[in-house]
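User: Just a sanity check before I run the rest of the batch. Below are the structure tokens for the first item. I only need the designed sequence back.
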């Protein structure tokens, strides 16, 4: 029988739930995404700043006058640096209020609002004592200061709520335990009792997150608030009430305050046992690929560290989470809104602790969890030239710390003069004559494949598979897919492998390596093969 050409094209997404032999999705992947239904490598990342003194527990990015101002909260306080449009960083400035007491359980939330008193935008930084307990009622603290300043932040003594803050311009809302929230006087961040400032108790459970909602009539401010068991809408009505509140649902849940994200006017978040969205009504986001993979392996004791970040360039929402016994976010499950599919990846560098989408770079910024002083520079001091706020170079002599990364930059990991390849791979669904439209109890022999990739750097491909679903995996030697073939033979990849259940595994792991898959063709034919695998 002549060889039969078959296009290798499973459904987009990586299916972790159920068995490998079930369905027609990719069964494994690392640092890979999907576009137009086909796999491609996720972008690289570079270090922007490496002198944070602790693991980041909150981040805010604000663009102003050609610069990007990044505020980060750690257990030791609030720190800030400035980025130019090409990613050059200033030194890190400590903006912590002198009254702040270092707290390993500190959880930070930021926003920016205009203050009529100072006639300037101000950064608002709220710290709560609930990193290890989302339901904690311990009072939080609110600080404020110029969004582009370097001075220590000022205490806002009128706000002590345990949940967080959100700006619904021209108001600022603070919220917390027992469904209590309060709002500032319109246009002020420092006046919480005068004018139309007010408060309300809108539910019986702690409120843990608030976000602006599409404006109501006349661009009136409105917002959504998430409590531990409900979603509530706030709408400006003026007069004595100022705001009215209506419950969208009282039968909801939320995994962490930072697991909520807005994407094109639709709000997505993790509940305690499923993914949810709000687009006028609360609905479940269907996930048939890795729902169990996520919830069965989430370190639930560290749930408050779960955070969401979006990458609109690729239509993605990432939920980063601590997997297994990890105490920091080591993995991410990814929902591709555009492709309407799910996949996942292990996070680089041991993990990430927080992230935000930075429009000025068209890419997200995330923070690492490894102290570079402890791992590489213990006992040494580093001397470098850094740019100060007045754009003058200055010699600094201090130890390195935690790294702030710009993702979706190039193809490699870049940290100063160190450049490392980023490993990316994917494994296809099973190909089997047993499960074909006309089932045959025969194995498949692969003679060769015709690679079709937009490719930089050489790749490898392996054939793996088994005799039956309980048999052990048998993997071939890796064969090279040349980025630039030098002979006719290198244009194809030759195999002589036989499996009853057969998969292909493609990998890129070279400096500058990158790929987009096209129509890869395998040349196959039926072959005899035992239904039993080798003895285990």
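Assistant: Here's the designed sequence for the first item:
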């Amino acid at each position: 029988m002549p060889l039969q050409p078959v296009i290798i094209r499973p459904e987009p997404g990586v299916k972790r739930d159920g068995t490998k032999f079930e369905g027609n999705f990719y069964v494994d992947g690392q640092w890979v995404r999907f576009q137009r239904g086909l796999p491609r490598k996720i972008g690289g990342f570079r270090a922007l700043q490496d002198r944070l003194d602790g693991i980041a527990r909150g981040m805010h990015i604000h663009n102003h006058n050609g610069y990007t101002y990044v505020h980060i909260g750690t257990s030791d306080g609030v720190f800030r640096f400035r980025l130019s449009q090409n990613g050059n960083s200033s030194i890190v400035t400590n903006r912590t209020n002198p009254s702040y007491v270092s707290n390993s359980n500190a959880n930070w939330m930021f926003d920016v609002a205009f203050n009529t008193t100072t006639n300037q935008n101000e950064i608002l930084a709220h710290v709560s004592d609930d990193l290890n307990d989302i339901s904690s009622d311990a009072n939080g603290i609110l600080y404020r200061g110029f969004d582009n300043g370097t001075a220590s932040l000022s205490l806002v003594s009128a706000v002590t709520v345990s949940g967080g803050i959100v700006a619904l311009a021209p108001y600022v809302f603070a919220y917390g335990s027992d469904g209590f929230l309060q709002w500032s006087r319109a246009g002020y961040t420092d006046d919480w009792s005068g004018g139309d400032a007010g408060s309300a108790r809108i539910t019986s459970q702690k409120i843990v997150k608030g976000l602006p909602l599409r404006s109501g009539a006349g661009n009136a401010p409105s917002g959504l608030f998430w409590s531990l068991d409900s979603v509530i809408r706030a709408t400006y009505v003026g007069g004595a009430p100022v705001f009215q509140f209506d419950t969208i649902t009282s039968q909801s849940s939320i995994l962490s305050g930072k697991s909520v994200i807005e994407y094109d006017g639709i709000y997505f978040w993790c509940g305690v046992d499923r993914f949810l969205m709000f687009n006028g009504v609360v609905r479940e986001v269907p996930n048939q690929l890795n729902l169990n993979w996520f919830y069965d392996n989430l370190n639930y004791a560290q749930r408050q560290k779960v955070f969401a970040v979006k990458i609109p360039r690729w239509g993605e929402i990432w939920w980063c989470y601590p997997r297994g016994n990890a105490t920091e976010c080591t993995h991410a499950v990814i929902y591709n809104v555009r492709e309407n599919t799910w996949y996942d990846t292990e996070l680089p560098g041991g993990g990430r602790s927080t992230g935000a989408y930075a429009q000025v770079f068209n890419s997200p910024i995330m923070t690492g969890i490894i102290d570079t002083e402890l791992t590489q520079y213990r006992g040494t001091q580093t001397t470098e030239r850094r740019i100060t706020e007045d754009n003058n170079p200055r010699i600094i002599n201090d130890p390195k710390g935690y790294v702030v990364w710009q993702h979706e930059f190039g193809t490699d990991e870049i940290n100063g003069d160190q450049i490392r390849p980023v490993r990316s791979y994917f494994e296809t669904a099973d190909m089997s004559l047993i499960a074909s439209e006309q089932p045959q109890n025969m194995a498949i022999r692969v003679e060769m494949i015709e690679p079709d990739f937009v490719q930089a750097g050489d790749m490898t491909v392996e054939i793996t598979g088994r005799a039956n679903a309980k048999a052990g995996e048998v993997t071939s030697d890796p064969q090279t897919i040349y980025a630039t073939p030098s002979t006719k033979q290198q244009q194809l990849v030759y195999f002589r492998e036989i499996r009853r259940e057969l998969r292909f595994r493609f990998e890129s792991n070279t400096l500058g390596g990158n790929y987009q898959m096209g129509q890869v063709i395998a040349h196959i034919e039926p072959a005899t093969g035992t239904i039993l695998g080798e003895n285990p």
